[in-house]
Amino acid sequence: MNDCFYIDKTTGTFADELLTAGFIRLLENLLAQQHASNFEIVQTDFGQYYQIEVTPALDMAQLDESIPAFPLAPILRTKKNAKALPDLPEKREYLVDYDVEKEKRAAFFAAYKDLEGTMKYAYAVGEDDNFPFDTMPSPPHHRWDVFTLLNAPPMPINGYNKLIAQWYAIGEAKEAGAVCRLACELFSTSPNDVETAVSTWNPFVKQHKWIKTASASQFFNPSQGKGINKALPNSVGLGNMKNFWLLEWLKAIGFYHIAFTKRMKGSDDRKTYVPAGGRSTVPAREAVQKIFGKKMRFSETAVRSDILTVIRYVQSFIDEVAKAQSGTATEAERAFLAMMGEVKRPSDFLRGFHAVYYKSLGTSVVTMNIAFLNLPGWVEIKTREDTAVFHDILEEQKDIVRQFKENRGEEIDLLQQFRDFIVADNLDPFFEFTTAYSSWLISQGEKKSGFPPRKFNVNNLRRLIMSNEPKLSPILESEGFRNIAYAIRQSTVTAQYRKNKMDDRRYTVRYGLGRDLVRQSQYPTDFIAALGDFLHAYNAESAQVMENRSGPYRRSIKTSDIEEITRLIDEHGSEVIAKLLVAFGYARMPRQTEEEKA
Q: Does a structural domain hold residue 394?
């Protein structure tokens, strides 16, 4: 009996995640045979390895010749390879016909083009309850993007099919039980004894002529593609590395089930995202992944793709928490809440995503970048109200990010700054973003056509900052701070709106104010002087308008406001105060009060 397994992290890339996912899929089938549906699998990240706990324990003695070669991932059939494939049942779990799925997808999107915009939007964002599936052709296969990767140059389909086909050959030889036992014994201890597993496999190679090693495809092993991979190279050959067949087989299964891969918009380049587990049960991971997969139906450009992948997953996690908190929650959903404890943090559930960028060279592909995208640790669901609050914050961020195009220098810089923030629990890159964004907002506000640029909601902004740095709460609650942020808003985005939309030029639009204040904030005396000059001009202009024009009027800044902001500068530093003032000064109020209309 064995109730605990361990998967060593040997590469530091998503190959470790794929191996873990493939083995978990194997365990699910074995436990289902022994315990029907009454079992649980929990995956936990322990740094150097993943621990896989199973309840009830797996009876290793039952892993014998009676076990069939159950489907773990399908073989992919095309017109070119159909004759070479083994004879398999015509079921999706055993075999998928690429050309049939391609035709089905084409028929679906031909009908999709004729839908009205609201229906298209519902499908694009995963709101399937609002989409007319009943009147449409069958939707694309949920793993279509995986199929397109496998069937594109340099044709990893051949290596993938070879791995999957050997598993069915093992089943026909009545050796599936022996292979399952070999895998379970390999992962019963850490470090994993791969050498012993290979020795155990060698007799099967001799008896059945099965493969012992398989090419380490760069799509399953991003750090082990073609190239000079030897520790002490003695030649310049650029062939693929070889790994133990069992490990590559499990990685291929894992890739099919958990990888998300997309061509980049407007390019043949590709990005693959593989989730890295924190602590979760298998049903909980699959439930969140199902929601997430629906939000990932369309391609994005490279940097925007990274940001939206993280935001969409966190939103999917929040959606699942909200379902579990509802009065109609299932037993599995309630168990999910119990597993997460009092504070539900998506970064505890899933650490983040391995992201690999593949550059297309026509007939070949090269791995250009390997990165890791953390989930934001500042998202913490403690109450039912938190689900709505954080969902709104993330939805607002998603709308802001989608404004930017990566073929424009200023906007790619904004995207990179926002990506640095969303994948790290650090406000520094966020303040870099909001400072640069202040100038972008004003420049976009000068345009006469198109949608007006989106602004942060001050309530969402306050919650975001306090979730990251609770110690900044006294600043945000200060009346003096709020009043001076109001003055900045009135002198920039509000004044610009009045000028362009209402032809009201009573107040001067102060272009570049945000950047000027942040630039002066390196030295407290310089910042106080610059802020004082602005506030003096602001009050003088307000007084002049009150003398010569009818109301309503904007508020003036009081001496007590200046005294309070000076005290905050002494306590927290001029740079923090300047960046917060700019962030809030260029944000919008949740409702436009009479004061904001002034």
A: no
The number of distinct structural domains making up the chain is 1
Q: What is the pLDDT of residue 473?
A: 96
C-alpha to C-alpha distances, 397 to 21, 394, 430, 433, 519, nearest whole angstrom: 31, 5, 11, 12, 25
Asked if residues 73 and 164 have their Cβ atoms less than 8 Å apart, the reply is yes
| Helix 245-258, helix 176-186: angle, nearest 10 | 90
pLDDT of residue 593: 47
For 89, which DSSP code? -
Question: Measured between alpha carbons, how far is residue 226 from residues 212, 216, 366 in Å?
Answer: 20, 9, 9
CA distances to 182, 327, 435, 510 from 528, in Å? 71, 54, 18, 18
CA distance 578 to 531: 9
pLDDT at 551: 78
Q: Each residue of 413-460: pLDDT tens digit?
A: 999 999 999 998 899 999 999 999 999 999 999 987 778 899 999 999
User: Does some domain include residue 591?
Assistant: yes
d(CA 438, CA 431): 11
For residue 142, with 0-12 CB atoms within 10 Å meaning exposed, 13-18 middle and 19 or more buried, which class applies? Answer: exposed
**One-letter amino acid for residue 594 of the chain:** E
Which tokens hold the place of 510? 């102060």
Q: Are 291 and 361 in contact (CB under 8 A)?
A: no
Does residue 166 form part of some domain?
no
Instruction: Find the helix or strand (DSSP H, E) in which 279 lies.
Output: strand 279-281
Strands 49-58 and 2-8: what pairing?
antiparallel
552 bridge partner residues: none
Note the pLDDT of residue 449: 72
pLDDT digits (tens, 9 = 90+) for 260-288: 999 999 999 999 999 999 999 999 999 99
**Nearest alpha-carbon partner for 482 in 567, 580, 590, 597:** 580
Alpha carbons 521 and 249: distance in angstroms, whole number: 57
Mapping DSSP to helix (H, G, I), strand (E, B) and coil, where does residue 457 land? strand
Q: Is the pTM of this model over 0.90?
A: yes
Whether 587 is in a domain gets the answer: yes
- Note whether 437 and 431 are within 8 A (CB): no
> What is the per-residue pLDDT for 225?
59
How many beta carbons lie within 10 A of that of residue 286, not counting itself? Answer: 12
Give the residue ranges of the chain where pLDDT is below 70: 225-240, 591-598
Burial class from Cβ neighbours inside 10 Å (0-12, 13-18, 19+) for residue 446 reads exposed
Distance from C-alpha of 384 to C-alpha of 391, rounded to nearest angstrom:
12
DSSP state of 263: E
Note down the domain range covering 488: 426-597
Structure tokens at 242: 């070889």
Strand partners, 272: 261, 356
